[in-house]
Write a structure and sequence with these properties.
It is built from 8 helices and 12 strands. By secondary structure, it is α/β, with parallel strands linked by helices. The strands form 3 sheets. A 5-stranded mixed beta sheet has the order 5-4-3-6-7. The chain has a 5-stranded mixed beta sheet with strand order 10-9-8-11-12, sandwiched between helices. It has a two-stranded antiparallel sheet with strand order 1-2.
Length: 320
């Protein structure tokens, strides 16, 4: 049997036994070339069909309901996923969602979606889509996508991060995505960058997420993050560069790719400040010269990353 990619026969695989819906079950991957990709964030939820080359079709998105009822959020997810599924068959569902979460996404408690606490996401996705479902942290999904089709393609050691409604990260070392005990490795949003800074939703004070996320900037300035002036954009970049330097020094890596509406929206001012702080704080022989660059996939990153979660689980040649 072949590897199941476009134009080739089907194959059978056994889903990894490490938890999640349908663990250990044997599934046949037919010559259908798309997975369902689902991205769940605090601002919007989106879904699309994505083929094994990373091409996106049948994209749909809606605003994330700001409701205390977990089923309201789920109905939004099911609506965009169902619309994407109407475009044709898929072999699996891959999802990126904010954390923290239990291993394999069996239960998710995103800090930026207050209605979901211990929400059984992977089981709901599998039941809704009628195919095997795989869930990972949205920033870890981005790391897979950027290593597959983005700014980290060909790299074996890098950090990928999102600076948006929340701040998250995924780390690839020696060509493998780091998972951690429960799948939450890479939470750079909760590196302390300002010890006397604002309280964070996680309970600590001065986390990167508490000073650099869109909502935190709005609380601090009284204006939406998109309206922030150059001084705020520069300060936000410095905070991000400080956190990246900690990771570079700790883990011996020299590349960080950054996505998200805040980082990409703040543009050159943000990235120049981030690189200057990284240069000043990553001074070890192995971290000197580390770079921080915009993510290569732009607005497609979350969905390509979610698809990469599924393709990786199916055995595709994707980093990790």
């Amino acid at each position: 049997m072949s590897d199941g990619w476009p134009g080739r026969p089907s194959r059978a695989y056994r889903r990894p036994s490490g938890g999640g819906f349908g663990a250990g079950r044997v599934v046949t991957v037919r010559a259908v070339t798309c997975v369902l990709a689902v991205d769940i964030g605090g601002t919007k939820v989106a879904a699309a069909r994505v083929d094994s080359s990373g091409r996106i079709t049948d994209r749909h998105a809606v605003a994330t309901p700001q409701s205390s009822d977990p089923e309201d959020v789920w109905r939004a997810v099911a609506a965009v996923a169902g619309a994407a599924l109407a475009g044709g068959p898929v072999v699996a569902c891959g999802c990126g969602c904010g954390g923290p979460m239990a291993s394999g996404g069996t239960a998710v408690s995103p800090l930026n979606i207050g209605a979901w606490r211990e929400f059984p996401l992977v089981a709901r996705l599998a039941a809704m889509s009628a195919v095997p479902a795989f869930v990972d942290n949205d920033a870890k999904a981005l790391a897979l996508g950027e290593g597959w089709r983005g700014a980290a393609a060909g790299q074996r050691d890098y950090l990928a991060m999102v600076v948006s409604t929340g701040v998250g990260g995924g780390i690839v070392l020696d060509g493998r995505l780091l998972d951690g005990a429960l799948g939450n490795a890479g939470h750079i949003g909760h590196v302390i960058v300002d010890p006397d800074g604002a309280a964070c939703a996680c309970g600590a004070r001065g986390c990167l997420e508490a000073v650099a996320s869109g909502p935190s900037i709005e609380r601090r300035t009284g204006r939406p993050a998109a309206a922030a002036g150059p001084a705020v954009r520069e300060e936000t970049g410095r905070f991000v560069g400080r956190a990246v330097a900690d990771v570079a020094n700790l883990l011996d890596l020299r590349l960080a790719v950054v996505a998200g509406s805040v980082a990409l929206g703040f543009g050159d001012v943000f990235f120049r400040a981030a690189q200057a702080e990284l240069d000043a704080s990553a001074r070890l022989d192995f971290s000197l010269g580390a770079r921080i660059v915009p993510a290569g996939l732009g607005g497609d990153g979350p969905l390509v990353g979610a698809a990469a979660v599924a393709w990786r689980a199916l055995g595709a040649p994707i980093v990790g």
